[in-house]
Design a protein that fits this description.
152 residues, alpha+beta, five-stranded antiparallel β-sheet, 5 strands, 36% helix, globular
């Protein structure tokens, strides 16, 4: 087994990295991470994954929309769809707007307890859900899928 790894290191990894005649053990170490991500090895700092765990899928959020609302920037109601891995900073998220479109924004927050309990905000969330359903159709239910495709 060890000889197989030496062959892979010498004949594959060496040319891949432009290294000839190097010790196979040194070449193998290129891929050895000891349970760390490459960024940790290179920079010495732990990768920030807080954007993944801070919001749950389809959580209610307030976000800063691009529509100017001078003099105050008004936060808009939306639904969190997940991190936007291909746009902006690591904290940028995809957010569903009431018109059924999604936007990528970095300025967002959870609803406050006051907003969550407010009758006015409860009505805003109801209107939001109705608007999304009118544009995208009703949400899926268990009856839309075969029983063997559903997880227990």
């Amino acid at each position: 087994m060890e000889d197989d790894l030496d062959w892979i290191a010498e004949d594959f990894m060496g040319p891949l990295f432009g290294i000839r005649g190097a010790d196979p053990l040194e070449l193998r170490y290129i891929y050895k991470t000891n349970g760390q991500v490459p960024e940790m090895i290179m920079t010495g700092s732990t990768t920030d994954i807080s954007h993944i765990g801070e919001f749950g899928w389809y959580d209610w959020v307030m976000f800063l929309d691009n529509t100017p609302t001078f003099p105050d920037d008004k936060m808009v109601l939306g639904r969190y769809l997940g991190p936007a891995t291909d746009v902006g900073t690591v904290m940028t998220a995809k957010i569903l707007k009431s018109n059924g479109q999604y936007v990528c924004r970095g300025m967002l927050r959870h609803l406050t307890q006051e907003e969550h309990d407010s009758p006015v905000h409860v009505e805003l969330r109801r209107q939001f859900s109705e608007s999304v359903e009118a544009r995208l159709g009703p949400g899926a239910s268990d009856t839309d899928f075969d029983a063997e495709d559903l997880m227990p």
